Amino acid sequence: MDLHLPEECWELICKAIDEDDYRFLESFSLVSTLFLSITNRVRSTFVITDRTLPLLDRHLLRFRNLRRLRFFDFHRDLNSILLQVSRSGLDFESVDVSQMPYFPGFEKSRMMKELKCSGVGDFRDSHLVSIGVNFPFLQKLDISYPNSIPSPVSDAGLISLSSSVKALLKINISGNSFITDKSLIALSQNCLLLREIIFRDCDFISSDCIEFVLRNSRNLESLAINGIGLNPKESFSNDAFLFARRLIELDLSGSFLSDELLYLIADAKLPLKKLLLSDCHGFTFDGVLYLLAKCQTLVHLNLEGANFLSDEMIMELVIFFRQLTFLNLSFCSKLTGLAFFSIIQRCVSLRCMIMEGTNFGVEDYSKEMDIKSGIKFLYLSRNHNLRDECLEKISRHCPLLESLDVAQCPGITIDGILQVWRNCGELRSLDISRCTCIRSLGVVDFELPKLESLRACGTWIDDEALDMISKRCRRLLHLDLQGCLKVSSRGVREVVQRCIRLREINLKYCEADDGIFTWMVFANPSLRKIIPPCGFSPTKKLHNFLLRHGCVISQDSSELLSIAYRANGRDNDTLTKLMI
After folding, report:
1. CA Rg, the chain, in Å?
2. Nearest CA among 298, 300, 316 for reference residue 308
3. Beta strands 504-506; 529-531: pairing state
4. What one-character DSSP code corresponds to residue 204?
5. Cβ-based neighbour number of residue 30 at 10 Å
6. Is the Cα torsion angle 415, 421, 424, 430 positive or negative in sign?
7. 3-class SS of residue 7
């Protein structure tokens, strides 16, 4: 590493790291006082959890350029913490209080641009009124799936909101089951700058209202809805999509679509880049063929659950896949590896491919191809016919793989995984969960320098396998061993002691001793989260001890999994940045 670069260059590097995952700045800041100063200056995101609370004042004084604030795994008084944050003098542009048990009281802010409160408990119309009053320049709002049954959000609240936040660019109102056409019409009329509207699982929205939005919201770039076509009385007029001249993302997942509707979309000649038709029914190959022939601007295509698709059909469609960077063909049960290899042979731009739950593995492997695909993210879980021979062929033709998911593929053994490790030197994330034929990790006589995330849930790997991991995977950050019944404290000690960057480990259903957790935080200061074996209940003394060392014991694996998915590149925001 050249430490003599100008400070401005290091600052740009740190900003890039912060955008990818701010937690990597922690180790970067330990290199020198210069790097510490730079990381303090560029840090823009801060997550408040129970374990960060004792030092919150220091953090707010240290990072003076914070712009995004997120609450996660937080069980204290939300209002008092927000008051403490407001007194710090920092101007936050984005606050995320999703999944919190109640909506907090906010102070008025002209700087607030984004508010996420998905899944908030007891969310009401009065809170929408408060948002409109306190954040008049809000640009992005997520109020999806409030944790209230029934949802108390009504048209009155959204109409009031729409009259106050005229600069709104994006809104997600999914799961608010009582809103009607009145809400969307008000949003479309009052928020003329709207670019993205998401309203899944809103049963009282009609096709007439959707047409009104398409006609009236002239800046609309992204529309996500589901359930259209389920009411046979509803239909779209022939010019429904002609006015949406800027629409580049269209998500119709979970709908009943006729070929005629696909023809309407195709004939509108929209500049579509992203099209999601997952779990849709009613359309046929002819509709898909016509649409893809007309919309050759697509880079992101999701046809999950299109069971009529066959290998022969894919070979006919593949000429329209040339620009694709993302393709999802999961649960297209007739597809085999022939479709996959045909696609990677023709689609030189493809970076992410998902073929979960197909018939991958029953095809003939005899044909050799001279292919070196640039694909980086590959998800092949639940392919019960997938074997080591096919996995080895995939690894040869996709040497740039960074993330591979072969979970629940019972035909795969360690021999296939070893071939992947040998041929794919860029691999950062691997999921072999519930691959029941993997009983060890064999003898690995080479380093795996870039592997950061390993999920091995429900496999038969043991302490010897963990010993190998500890020696060959020194950069490991996330290790998920849930359900690995042969793992004991001995193997855990090897991994924790040698993988000095390890941040999170899941030991649920393992045989680790209760007394190991204190040792773990002393042996590895980078540890931030431990999911212990079932039945273990930490004392308050142990809990506080770990918190003082920046680590938490939790039975909740959701954050571990979300981190693993971010490493895998499956997070929606990450995929959007990658594919479009």
Report:
1. 25
2. 316
3. parallel
4. B
5. 10
6. positive
7. helix
Please report, for the chain, the start and end positions of each structural domain, with discontinuous segments joined by +.
439-580
What's the count of helices (H) and strands (E) in the chain, helices before strands? 21, 21
Nearest to 578 by CA among 314, 304, 327: 327
Measure the CA–CA gap between 228 and 206, rounded to whole angstroms: 8
Angle in degrees, 0-180, between the axes of helices 388-397 and 337-346, rounded to the nearest 10: 0
Residue 135 in tokens = 């954040």
- Nearest CA to 323 among 301, 353, 340, 342? 301
What does the buried/exposed string (b/e) look like for 142-178 if buried means 16 or more CB atoms within 10 Å of the residue's CB? bbbbbbeeebbbbbebbbbbbebbeebbbbbbbbbee
Write out pLDDT tens, residues 114-127. 999 999 999 999 99
Q: Which residues contact 39 (CB under 8 A, 6 or more apart)?
A: 14, 25, 28, 29
For residue 392, the tally of other CB atoms under 10 A from its CB is: 19
Secondary structure letter of residue 400 according to DSSP: T
At 197 the three-state DSSP class reads strand
The angle at the Cα of 113, spanning 224 to 574, to the nearest 5 degrees, equals: 50
Q: What crossing angle do the helices spanning 388-397 and 414-423 adopt, rounded to 10°?
A: 10
- What pLDDT shows up at residue 238? 83
Place of tokens 């038969």: 460
| CATH entry, 439-580, from 3.90.550.10, 2.40.33.20, 1.10.260.40, 3.80.10.10 | 3.80.10.10
Per the CB < 8 A criterion, the answer to whether 494 and 520 are in contact is no
Instruction: Report residue 106 as tokens.
Output: 């906010």
Of 408, 405, 444, which Cα lies nearest the Cα of 428? 405
Pair of tokens at residue 377: 């993210």
Pairing of strands 222-224, 453-455: unpaired
Q: Helix, strand, coil % (nearest 5) of the chain?
A: 35, 10, 50
Give 73's Cβ-side CA count (13 Å radius): 18
SS3 96: strand
The three-state secondary structure class of 286 is helix
Question: Are 531 and 555 within 8 A, CB to CB?
Answer: yes
Query: Which helix (H) or strand (E) is 302 found in, with range?
Result: strand 300-302
Distance between CA atoms of residues 266 and 259, nearest Å = 10
Quote the tokens at residue 372.
Answer: 């070196």
Predicted local confidence at residue 441, as pLDDT:
81
Low-confidence ranges of the chain (pLDDT < 50): 1-2, 559-580
Distance CA 254, CA 28 (A): 44
**How far apart, in whole angstroms, are the C-alpha atoms of residue 362 and residue 347?**
23
In order of 31, 486, 507, the CA distances from 512 in angstroms are 34, 10, 7
pLDDT value of residue 41: 77
Confidence (pLDDT) at 577: 38
Q: Report pLDDT for 150.
A: 74
Place of tokens 């009259």: 163
Whole-number Å distance between alpha carbons of 46 and 69: 5
Residue whose entry in the numeric block shows the structure tokens 């670069």 = 5
Token pair of 448 as six digits: 């795996």
Q: Which segments of 396-537 are extended strands (E)?
A: 403-405, 429-431, 453-455, 478-480, 504-506, 529-531
Query: Which of 147, 148, 212 minimizes the C-alpha distance to 183?
Result: 212
